[in-house]
Amino acid sequence: MACGRCAVVANGTAVDTEMRSRSSAIATAGCCLSAAYMAAWFIARLEGVGAARDILRHAAPVGENDSYATRAMACVAPYL
Questions:
Q1: Which of 1, 6, 55, 57 suits 70 as a labelling partner, its CA being 20 to 30 A distant?
Q2: How far, in Å, CA of 69 to CA of 57, rounded?
Q3: SS3 61
Q4: With the C-alpha atoms ordered 13, 16, 21, 25, is the resulting torsion angle positive or negative?
């Protein structure tokens, strides 16, 4: 069985995988890392960028702590 995104793309629909912020307190994200991006955005808004980076480091794949957190925060930072 194909994934839902694969089926949508196969039908010719464009899929947006960028994190978006439509207003100061509302954001959407879509891709395999959307949960991490949304959590980082939420934590950064409440507790600061340092706290979000620390949490992401704990959720990173083994051996990728810093690079994972850096990549995720690079996607989130423009929307803070």
A1: 6
A2: 6
A3: coil
A4: positive
